[in-house]
Write a structure and sequence with these properties.
Layout: H1 2-24, E1 44-45, H2 53-58, E2 77-81, E3 90-93, E4 99-102, E5 106-109, H3 115-126, E6 136-141, E7 144-150, E8 156-160, H4 166-172, E9 186-192, E10 195-201, H5 203-207, E11 222-225
Length: 232
C-alpha cells in the first residue's frame, strides 16, 4: 500500500513538472552524444535554441576550440619600441580609462585592441613625427580573470596569464567534486555584444579521450559545474 502511494505521488509530481515546463514555454537543452558531436555545445542566447550538431558539422559554430585573439585590457603592461628612434621607447601600463601615454602623440587608446591593431594605429600617429615607420608593440605582462563555481573543490576567481581552457580552469579551482559533479553538462556563461551566451560542454568526453576539442575561455567567463540529477 505504501509503495502504491509513493508511486502515485511521484506520478503526480511528474505530471505537475511537465505542465509547469509546458506552460512556461521552456526548452530543454540537447544532450549531445560525445561519439557523434563535439565536446562543446552551441550557444543559447536569451532563451533561444542554439545551433544543432548539424550546424557544427557545417562549421557555423562559434569557434572556441582555438585560443581567442589577445585583446589588450586595463592593467596590461605593453612595451612600445621604435627601432629607428630608440629614445621614444616606452613601457606603459594601460590605465583604467583604457589609454597609455606616449611621447609626441600623448594619450592613445589601447584597451580593446589587439597588439597588432595598436601597432597599426601608432604607425599612423607617428608618421608625421618620425622618418621611420617601424613601431612594435609587445605585451610585457597580462592576466585576466575567469570564474569557476558549482561542484568544484575551490570555487572562485582564477587568474591566467595565458590562454586557458574550461577544463584547465576547473583544475585550477581544485578539480571536480566527483561525488556531485555532472561532467556532461558543464556551462560556460559569456557576455557577448551586450547579451549573455550560455555554452554547454561535455567534459566527461574530454576526460575519457573521446573528444579532443578544447574549449578556450575568454576574460570574465563563468564556468558552472552543475550537480548530478537525483530523485533522492
Amino acid at each position: 500500500m505504501k509503495m502504491f502511494i509513493c508511486q502515485s505521488s511521484l506520478s503526480i509530481y511528474s505530471l505537475v513538472a511537465v505542465a509547469v515546463l509546458a506552460g512556461a514555454g521552456c526548452r530543454t537543452q540537447q544532450d549531445y552524444d560525445s561519439a557523434n558531436a563535439p565536446a562543446y555545445a552551441s550557444p543559447r542566447q536569451n532563451g533561444e535554441a542554439g545551433q544543432t550538431a548539424d550546424d557544427f558539422a557545417m562549421g557555423t559554430q562559434t569557434d572556441s576550440s582555438q585560443p581567442p585573439p589577445t585583446i589588450l585590457r586595463q592593467g596590461d603592461t605593453v612595451k612600445v619600441s621604435f627601432p629607428g628612434a630608440a629614445n621614444l621607447n616606452e613601457t606603459e601600463q594601460i590605465r583604467l580609462d583604457g589609454k597609455i601615454a606616449l611621447p609626441l602623440v600623448g594619450d592613445v587608446q589601447a584597451a580593446g585592441l589587439t597588439p597588432d591593431q595598436l601597432q597599426a594605429n601608432l604607425v599612423k600617429l607617428y608618421a608625421p613625427q618620425i622618418s621611420s615607420s617601424d613601431v612594435t608593440v609587445a605585451i610585457e605582462s597580462s592576466s585576466f580573470p575567469v570564474y569557476v563555481t558549482g561542484c568544484v573543490m575551490s570555487p572562485g576567481r582564477v587568474l591566467s596569464n595565458q590562454p586557458i581552457t574550461a577544463l584547465e580552469a576547473i583544475m585550477d579551482a581544485g578539480g571536480f567534486d566527483f561525488s556531485r559533479a555532472n561532467l556532461r553538462h558543464v556551462h560556460v556563461i559569456r557576455r557577448e555584444n551586450d547579451s549573455s551566451q550560455s555554452y554547454v560542454i561535455n567534459l566527461k568526453a574530454v576526460l575519457n579521450g573521446d573528444d579532443k576539442n578544447d574549449f578556450f575561455l575568454q576574460p570574465d567567463d563563468i564556468v558552472y559545474v552543475p550537480e548530478k540529477f537525483s530523485w533522492f
